[in-house]
């Protein structure tokens, strides 16, 4: 088996979005609301407790977004509003958008690559394999993460495929077709690696790609699509690629 084009999802595939998410959300809540001083309704709310409730709603409502019942903005608005309600905190229309705008500005500061990312990308690049990233989100935010993670040494900016710029999101086939156009690749010989079954694995396979399910969050499969492999850690995926492509570690 040989792939001449290999693309990765970004969040929870090349770095722990869960860790960066937790730190960035707590930081944003603290700086936007906790610094107002004593005597406000926010003074008695612990940032960690607020995050835990925010994370609960993020997970609770995720399927609505992943299955295209809600837009990304609707999903974000709902998890913010419900968290504020849970603590009986005042909020107004537009607060969710302002909160997430501030979060987007700082989240890249908390991104740390998984162990082995640079070694794998370096080996693949030296082998002449086209490398890319296919990610949903805003271009400015994902570009900051790409820079903070120092992925520009291995994956050029034109190969950072972001849904906002492509005007289509994973799991739509058009997103994967657009990526191949940008990378001058072909469906045959292309592999996609991602952590979401619906957005990454199902989307890639149904677009004609091979896929590796990097199941860092313990998701359940929801379709009968067959990935080339399933792993629980980036290190497993790195070893699999080096072994399958017969590259020396």
From TrEMBL:
<protein>
    <submittedName>
        <fullName>Putative hydrolase of the HAD superfamily</fullName>
    </submittedName>
</protein>
<keyword id="KW-0378">Hydrolase</keyword>
<dbReference type="InterPro" id="IPR052550">
    <property type="entry name" value="Pyrimidine_5'-ntase_YjjG"/>
</dbReference>
<dbReference type="Pfam" id="PF00702">
    <property type="entry name" value="Hydrolase"/>
</dbReference>
<dbReference type="InterPro" id="IPR036412">
    <property type="entry name" value="HAD-like_sf"/>
</dbReference>
<dbReference type="InterPro" id="IPR006439">
    <property type="entry name" value="HAD-SF_hydro_IA"/>
</dbReference>
<dbReference type="GO" id="GO:0016787">
    <property type="term" value="F:hydrolase activity"/>
</dbReference>
<dbReference type="InterPro" id="IPR023198">
    <property type="entry name" value="PGP-like_dom2"/>
</dbReference>
<dbReference type="InterPro" id="IPR023214">
    <property type="entry name" value="HAD_sf"/>
</dbReference>
């Amino acid at each position: 088996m040989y792939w001449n084009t290999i693309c990765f999802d970004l969040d929870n595939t090349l770095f722990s979005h869960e860790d960066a998410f937790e730190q960035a959300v707590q930081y944003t809540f603290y700086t936007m609301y906790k610094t107002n001083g004593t005597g406000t309704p926010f003074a008695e709310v612990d940032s960690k407790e607020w995050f835990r409730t925010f994370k609960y709603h993020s997970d609770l409502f995720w399927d609505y977004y992943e299955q295209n019942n809600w837009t990304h903005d609707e999903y974000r608005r709902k998890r913010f509003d419900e968290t504020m309600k849970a603590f009986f905190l005042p909020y107004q229309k537009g607060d969710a958008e302002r909160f997430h705008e501030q979060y987007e500005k700082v989240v890249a500061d908390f991104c740390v690559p998984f162990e082995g990312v640079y070694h794998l990308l370096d080996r693949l690049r030296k082998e002449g394999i086209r490398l890319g990233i296919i990610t949903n989100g805003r271009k400015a935010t994902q570009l900051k993460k790409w820079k903070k993670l120092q992925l520009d040494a291995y994956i050029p900016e034109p190969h950072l495929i972001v849904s906002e710029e492509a005007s289509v999101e994973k799991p739509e086939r058009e997103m994967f077709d657009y990526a191949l156009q940008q990378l001058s690749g072909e469906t045959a010989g292309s592999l996609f690696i991602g952590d979401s079954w619906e957005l990454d694995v199902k989307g890639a396979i149904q677009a004609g790609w091979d896929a590796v399910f990097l199941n860092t969050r313990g998701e359940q499969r929801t379709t009968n699509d067959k990935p080339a492999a399933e792993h629980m850690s980036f290190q497993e995926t790195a070893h699999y690629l080096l072994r399958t492509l017969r590259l020396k570690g």
